[in-house]
Amino acid sequence: MGCSRNCGLIAGAVIGAVLAVFGGILMPVGDMLIQKTIKKEVVLEEGTIAFKNWVKTGTDVYRQFWIFDVQNPDEVAVNSTKIKVKQRGPYTYRVRYLAKENITQDSENHTVSFLQPNGAIFEPSLSVGTENDTFTILNLAVAAAPHLYPNSFVQGILNSLIKKSKSSMFQNRTLKELLWGYTDPFLNLVPYPIATTVGVFYPYNNTADGVYKVFNGKDDISKVAIIDTYKGKKNLLYWSSYCDMINGTDAASFPPFVEKTRILRFFSSDICRSVYAEFAAEMNLKGIPVYRFTLPSLAFASPSENPDNHCFCTEQIISKNCTLYGVLDISKCKEGKPVYISLPHFLHGSPELAEPIEGLSPNEEEHRTYLDVEPITGFTLRFAKRLQINILVKPAKKIEALKNLKHNYIVPILWLNETGTIGDEKAEMFRNQVTGKINLLGLVEIVLLSVGVVMFIAFMISYCACRSKKVN
């Protein structure tokens, strides 16, 4: 009877040890299975989860606009006073709803090239007004004239056309005109062929962003979705390549197994450059653990602080010898137009940027850019891209509309918030196909290991106690 009991206790201990060992073995094996599955599913080729969502996003993406309505246009034009602005918005459009086109796989170089069609659909229910709402804004054509034509003789001719068209430093335009384009009356009088349509995002609808060529990850999963080349906006490829600015992905996804220490680099054609994000916090999005990465203030720092920004310092006066921070001059990829990019309300910008503008209220929570990335797959499940479009306007003695200005202004035109969040249906699918299986496998590993250890310890204690009684 005693021997039988001792044998039972020993057998139980052995079983517990086996379970513990099996659980311990299962952990690295499970990790290998997870990695193998993820590496297969994130490759950008027909049949994978990544490819299906990459061709056409299943997430609704919206671009909201806030327009800076100028309250004192005459005072500014005549007396060069502070520009008083009032933010109006949001005006919301649905974007990125069109599937990628001209998708071509290159099996030799392990890349895939494509075009991303552009489209914007106005969403009245998510907007404070209609596309016909009118704003007082800077006259884009008049402000750009001295930059595009610095010769004083040419400016004199342009001045006569500006006066004849009854154009001034500021103008009234509808939302639709400002964003998507209008025929400018001043440019329409120019006697030689030039583009006469002006708009902050003109042309946009029925155009395509690209051609992009990205690595598909077939040979090296650490390169998946990273941009190889981009042939888009005029002069962008040469300029950005020279400055080593085209790198990273398009921010829709990143190579899998993202660690908190990783710097996530992504390219945005809106600002003609690549930027980067750093880990900020762990989040839970619809039951899915994600890492939040945010755009640091250093991304818009002066070249003296961030050498990567040296390409955006194109002159010494406006940039105050390249010490001005918080704005990037992207005129080189905007055909010379004096366009400056910043964070909304000049967040993280030099104090002198906001000094001549009244009505700005920078706020970190409302105006920062972030990405919520699922760390195992590298998929971006939620994001908010926030940027401000500004135009540099400076005094011009030969142009009457600008001759009374006493200093330069970097005038905010609008800021945008492009957002997207994984939908409930997609989130459930993601939990079932990815995180659910990973969690289940992890749970099995832990249970086997825990039960095995407990059984081993319990039976060994019982065995020792039994032996002790037998001796007594």
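The above is record 1. Record 2 follows with the same two-line structure.
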Amino acid sequence: MSEKKGSVQDIVELDVTKDGDVCNEEELHSLYQQTYYCAARKAVGLEKLYILHIDCDWKSNQLAAALSNNSIHLTSTDTLEKISTFIAHDQNISDVHFNPIDPNFLLSASSDGTIRVWDIRNPRSHAQEFKDDSDQRIKPFSSFDINCDGTLLCGGTEKVKNYTYLFLWDTRSSKMLSTYSDFHEDDISHVQFHHTSPKMLASCSTDCLINVYDLNETDEDDVLQFCMNTETTCERLQWLDYNKVTKQENISVITNTESVQIWDVNEASPKYSFTREKISEALKRKNAETCFAVRCFRQGEEKDPLLLAGSNTPNRGCLRMLKMKDGKLEPYAILYDEKGGNSQMIRSAVFNQANGQVVSGGEDGIINVWMPGKDKPVTSGTSRKFKTEFFTKKAVSPSKKPYSK
């Protein structure tokens, strides 16, 4: 299902000129029947900047992008009209999240060991700060999340000496509620609260584990509910929608080998695994080595989740969405910009369940807004207007036994 932890892949020199689609445009049209167009496209600055993380508050029409120069760039979610830009930290920003209850407040975490709250109406200085300085040692945050009712904040750290920490705070008082240092043995790559259960939390790590916690429990021995061994380094997880028919709570994880695993949380067992080769095959690409997984998206109850994936080769890249249905990947939508494909390595993306909008950003410092529907004029970072082209697309066991508590 995956490589052993610590294994090193052979370096293979690829002839990227031979990369591309395995079928022609007409066949792509027949497979990818959900149409998308690029509604807006804008660079975040004149200098070379990476877009590391994106979050959107759809109701207030606000987008926050964390950049590689430690700043946060605020725009509208539709036209990408600039609101403001400010320096948030002294070191790399590890994530950004809007407060789900009050979108006037934005949170950012950093490898400088702080999680800061910004009033984006006046972001000259942070309104609140969370950190652990009990032993005067910086704990660099690698991920964080705020729960669905805005009351709990969790930060996961890189490994510091021999420990990796999960910190839990009450957002209303800045009071630290709990510190956990025994649940992971290596850097925590991602933490995420459940989208409807405010006391349910999941984390994944480079130690190959996905952990699920019940924060209603007061005893540390009872907090950890499930521990699932993926047998490969975990990069990012996503709670998926509860299946009312099968009564399953599922979670996905993207691994360092660009594969995607789906796990049954209640059984602490793997359901499906989509290798890089399977993703490449579903994308209709020639070279699996150039393909990458970006994000898994929930579409909502009774709808199959989506996988945003692509390939990154000069003038031949692509960005597409696949439907994860019954253990199979099906073509769903092609995200096609005016350059003829995916022009950058995508680092972050978000999905609007209400209307299907996708916002992506990457290593060229460009934010794209993708909308379902017919082709329309798109506004770039200049005053120039141009038409986007688009394709259409069809609505698309480990050897070590995982264990649960």
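The CA atoms of residues 290 and 312 lie 6 Å apart.
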